[in-house]
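From the methods appendix. Each design record in this collection lists the tokenized structure first, followed by the designed amino acid sequence. Records were kept in a plain field format so they could be parsed without special tools. The example shown here is representative of the layout used throughout.

RECORD:
FOLD TOKENS (82 positions):
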């Protein structure tokens, strides 16, 4: 399990299309949004993509000014099983 908490800042005039692009990206959940274009997002690994790859894709969404990784948790699920 790989969970990344990110703060994404988008130019306000591109916030709505960016929100749509983020919600359509597998492994991405928006948990909060501000009117000035800031988003609190959680990114998780999916069966086909690592969270780090998805984060790099989020950087490419038109209007994204910055993306900061603010939290990271990794847990080897297979090792945790008895």
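DESIGN:
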């Amino acid at each position: 399990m790989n969970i990344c908490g990110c703060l994404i800042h988008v130019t306000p005039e591109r916030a709505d299309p960016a929100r749509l692009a983020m919600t359509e990206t597998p492994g991405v959940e928006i948990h909060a949004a501000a009117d000035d274009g800031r988003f609190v997002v959680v990114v998780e690994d999916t069966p086909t993509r690592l969270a780090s790859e998805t984060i790099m894709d989020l950087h490419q969404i038109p209007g994204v000014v910055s993306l900061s990784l603010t939290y990271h948790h990794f847990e080897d699920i297979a090792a945790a099983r008895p």
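APPENDIX NOTE: The chain is about 25% helix and 40% strand.
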